[in-house]
Amino acid sequence: VVWSRPRIRHSNMKLRCSKCPPGFGVWRKCTEKLDTECKPCNAGSYSPHHSYHTPCWVCSRCGPGLFEAHPCHPEADTICDDCHRTGVSPNKDFLTKCINKNSTQLIWTKGASEIIKTRRKKLNTF
């Protein structure tokens, strides 16, 4: 992969090192003889900034009461949202995590008339 990378002076070693772009992590830090080596972030990892020292980070997972509003991708971490927040556009993760599993009722009620069905039937429509 060839791309134009900004070069910076690494203050600790007085080296001119290239930064890896967002979506790429540092595979090998630069040395006196070799420039920074970058590697694309694998599935389940991301790197949001230009960096000359940071590898890709593991994507966050949404905890209890939260759903994945935007999935992690190579340049950005997962964005979680609250099941109780109004105005949420329901997606498959919302329907999986925010529906009371013992009934067909939603924890979140705005627009519920459009999506209250049996949980199984609704999940199969995506």
Approximate strand percentage: 15-25%
- Backbone shape: rod-shaped
Q: Helix- and strand-based class?
A: alpha+beta
Mean pLDDT: 77
Order of helices and strands: EEEEEEEEHHH
Number of strands: 8
Give the gist of this structure:
It is built from three helices and eight strands, in the order ββββββββααα.
List keywords for this structure.
126 residues; alpha+beta; Tumor Necrosis Factor Receptor, subunit A, domain 2; 2 domains; two-stranded antiparallel sheet; two-stranded antiparallel ribbon; 3 helices; 8 strands; 13% helix; 24% strand; rod-shaped
How would you describe this structure to a colleague?
The chain has three helices and eight strands. The C terminus is likely disordered. Strands 1-2 form a two-stranded antiparallel ribbon. It has a two-stranded antiparallel sheet with strand order 3-4. The chain has 126 residues and is α+β, with helices and mostly antiparallel strands. A hairpin with an 8-residue loop joins strand 7 and strand 8. It folds into two domains: 52 residues, Tumor Necrosis Factor Receptor, subunit A, domain 2 (Ribbon); 58 residues, no CATH class. This is TNFR-Cys domain-containing protein. It comes from Diploptera punctata (Pacific beetle cockroach). It holds the Pfam family TNFR_c6.
